[in-house]
Amino acid sequence: MKRSLLFIGYDAQVEQEIRESLCDKVSECFFVQTPVEAIRTVDDHAVDCVVLNFSAFSDASLIRYFSQYHPGIRLVLSASREFDEVISIFSESTYSRLPRPFRLEQLREMI
After folding, report:
1. Which one of 1, 21, 35, 50 is separated from 8 by 20 to 30 angstroms, measured CA to CA?
2. How confident is the model at residue 94 (pLDDT cuts 50, 70, 90)?
């Protein structure tokens, strides 16, 4: 079954690699940079999975938003160890953790 995926905060090079590796296997791939773009995309499209490049403490607001307003969306977080404490505040059942740097095979398995 094909799904819609939203990737938040990935640079152009990583975006291109993800597109080549995954996007032909799903119905739609969206790439955004800001929380506002992410919220608009999820509100306007039927997104099944969000992959968030957790790179700043402010990204925690997106986790909260998705958990509160879109609990059916699968959330995958890609983050370095320095954010473990912040991420641990959220329930383990709300998200899956993808260590950074990640391999595309790992991402493919999680989504």
Report:
1. 1
2. low
C-alpha to C-alpha distances, 107 to 44, 58, 98, 104, nearest whole angstrom: 24, 23, 7, 5
Which of these, 62, 74, 58, 63, lies nearest to 37 by C-alpha position? 62
Within 49-88, where are the H helices? 60-69, 84-88
The pTM for the full model equals 0.74
C-alpha–C-alpha distance, residues 82 and 38, integer Å: 23
Summarize pLDDT for 39-68 with one digit per residue, the tens.
999 999 999 999 988 877 777 788 888 888
Please tell me the distance from the alpha carbon of residue 21 to that of residue 24, in angstroms, as a whole number.
7
Angle made by CA atoms 22, 27, 30, in degrees to the nearest 5: 70
Helix/strand/coil for 11 = coil
Residue where the block lists tokens 């957790």: 54
